[in-house]
Amino acid sequence: MEIDSFTELVPLLSSFWRTIPAAQQLKLESSLTLLKQNHQLSQLYFLGRLEAHSVAYLLAFGTAGLDVFRERKFYYSRNAVDWILLLEPTDWTEEWSRLWAEFTGNASFAFKMRSLAAGSDVVVVREQDRLWYVIHAILREAAGVPRGALRMSTERDVVLNPFFRGLTRAEMVQLANYQHFRRPERPAEENLRGRKECDLSFDVFDRLEVDVLPEGKSFTMRVDDSGRLVVWSSLHWLGLDFFHKADSNVYGFFYQGDGRKNWDLPFMVEL
């Protein structure tokens, strides 16, 4: 949730049984506004809350330029007031998603894991580095936005589309109308294939329905009683929900979970 729209978006969390206490909401809005100013960020998003053994990590990310993904910075806080910058680990790998131990709440705690490669040594991963990886993985694999919310500029920058006016009620319940919140990783030809109508500026982004395995079964959808707000939930990163209000530019995502990936998903759905 972008901090400039925080007050407007927080009430929508109740539609999918998430809450932010009023006192914490005020702290977050104040501290994140200061963080955005002090770090000269053009966009700053509150991602959510990661539950650890002894404390909860509050998570945020932002960028200094117009490009939503270039030189992105990750932050965490324990008290909703003081924010700590997370530096990208120099030796991280996607195998870190196999770490299953609970987060402790101690940022300097060291987890141990062995690589899948035969004869590999034990790898030590600090909790602070693992926290960076979890934010990175959630944003890459689970966070989504409505089609048209992001736009590729002529300079190849990914920017927020100022002309986005939302999906219709019929469009918002179709997974094909949602895209990953990331730079395109698949060839543009694949992302454009199968669309009756397409716009090269915003249809080049990776579609949720064909990109995450099992295809078309990695997210669940529900619509609120008004029929105007849709919520999509990731089954890979349980606790990540993204939402969109029909015929408006109101959308966002929120995470509340334990930072562990659901590797059992292929056994939980009918393939």
Automatic annotation (TrEMBL):
TM regions (residue ranges)? none
- Give the location in the cell: Cell projection, Kinocilium; Cytoplasm, Cytoskeleton, Flagellum axoneme
Among InterPro entries, the record links this protein to: RSP9 (IPR055316)
Which keywords does this chain's UniProt record carry? Cell projection, Cilium, Cilium biogenesis/degradation, Cytoplasm, Cytoskeleton, Flagellum
Q: Which GO terms describe its biological process?
A: axoneme assembly; cilium movement involved in cell motility; motile cilium assembly
Q: Does the keyword ATP-binding apply?
A: no
Of the GO CC terms on this record, one is: kinocilium
Q: Which family does it belong to?
A: Belongs to the flagellar radial spoke RSP9 family.
Q: What is this protein's name?
A: Radial spoke head protein 9 homolog
Q: Which organism is it from?
A: Anopheles quadriannulatus
Kindly list the organism's lineage.
Answer: Eukaryota, Metazoa, Ecdysozoa, Arthropoda, Hexapoda
